[in-house]
Amino acid sequence: MSKEVQPIYIMPEGTKRNRGRDAQRNNIMAAKLVAETVRTTLGPKGMDKMLVDELGDVIVTNDGVTILEEMSVEHPTAKMIVEIAKTQEDEVGDGTTTAVVLAGELLKKAEELLDMEIHPTIIVKGYRMAAAKAQTILKNISEKITGDNKEILKKIASTAMTGKGAESSKEKLSEIVVNSVLEIKIKQDDKILIDIDDIKLATKVGESIDHTELIQGIVLDKDRVHSNMPESVKNAKIALLDSPLEIKNTETDAKIQITDPNQMQAFLDMEEKMLSKMVNKLSSSGANVVFCQKGIDEIAQHFLAKKKIYAVRRVKKSDMKKLARATGAKIISNIEDIEKHDLGIAGFVQEKKVGDEEMTFVKECENPKSVTILIRGGTEHVTDEIKRAVSDSIGVVCASVKSQRVVAGAGATEVELSRNLRLYSESLSGREQLAVKAFSETLEIIPRTLAENSGLDPINVLTILKSAHDKGKKWAGINIYDGKVMDAWKMGVIEPLKVKTQAISSATEVATMILRIDDIIAASLNQDEQQEMGPNFKR
């Protein structure tokens, strides 16, 4: 009589598990779907996406990382693809769509190799070999520039803005971006240091994009605290305080017992005297403008107005740091310690109405290491998209100034890289050769997508591009307006080398990681968690 075998449960009931080819197919499908979502936004003629969140807020953009962040992706593999876009944005500021599209195409090509019974580890090895070779090829074909060549930098800035909402005013905006980056650039020994956070992007609805301006200083979304203060101050001596201009409260709850009305008056007089002393200390240091991170008492406001000192309160900590870098002022924690040499200098501080709000402009700073780009546009959606385009443009200009190596765009770099990798694959003997060849074909997705998004025939475009590169024209790219081959370098379509190296590196890393997964174990929620999620929860 045979005994009934008792089933052994290793994982909780309800756990879902996909193994082998099913797991790989699911992962590849998720990655391809994410890539397809953003692919139509690539290039000068890429289309925009309208994203509406659960509150009804609308974003209209063709910025890859913004689309993916706002999509609320749930699939674990899709989340890994979104991470590529975030990394690309943090490292370079542009090329997010390129990186995601490359990752999706690498996995699509890998699927074809898997169907040919090639083991995932062989594909991974081939992809890594191809990526390493690609980095070497890119360095060899890239062009060296000087970090202060304004004309080249303007072309780089303009290339990053092409196809985005800012394109209509890209000439003016490119000049603003380049000037802002060169303003905050610091040369230390042989290194060039640039902190993008030193460029503040402020947006205000109203006027047209053409009214966007670069301010040699900082713009604050704040007005002066008292109407009797001067509206503008020339030759400003600026004090930055991170302590309040108020009477300090006791650290523990305290009671003051007053038995006589005269005591009450004496108490109030003492408070007034203390505030007057603080203001006198500021005035005697030579300060005629005060920016305070904390609050300013109403009596202190009155004394500041009498001394003709322009004051702003509740300034953000990040803005205080920018003010310090722009004006050369030191942030003071104790008013008693303030000295003349702690003050910053600006040519002009002014309260000005922009749109329907008052703003404070700190302008004409000498050699400012923090500046502001005030972005204007007809609607909030327009100004937000211009801000994203300008932010990308700043990122690529910074990357170019730091590395001083650039390549041409318009698909030229990808076709040249693909050609060289194809030749490299022919020198290999093992099955890795097929993976390297697949990697070289993957790169063709960029010119192919540029052509498709422009309404051109991708096969014709690739054929004429390959032919031009075989003749030694390394910067032959596609002119998406007439479908003909152009010299992308001469036409000013230029990108920093780091956009390409980072995109290939990130795309390869995530594709190889996904290919190595052959088992997906998805935990189930327990009953309590399911009740919290509600009756409509579906796994």
Question: Can you put this structure into words, describing what you see?
Answer:
This protein has 539 residues and is of the alpha+beta class. The chain contains 17 helices and 21 strands. It folds into 3 domains: 245 residues, GROEL, domain 1, CATH 1.10.560.10; 105 residues, TCP-1-like chaperonin intermediate domain (GROEL, domain 2, 2-Layer Sandwich), CATH 3.30.260; 149 residues, GroEL (3-Layer(bba) Sandwich), CATH 3.50.7. Strands 9, 10, 11, 12, 13, 14 and 15 form a 7-stranded mixed sheet that branches. It has a 3-stranded antiparallel sheet with strand order 4-17-20. A hairpin with a 2-residue loop joins strand 5 and strand 6. It is elongated, with a radius of gyration of 30 Å. The chain starts with 15 loop residues before the first strand and ends in a 6-residue tail after the last helix.
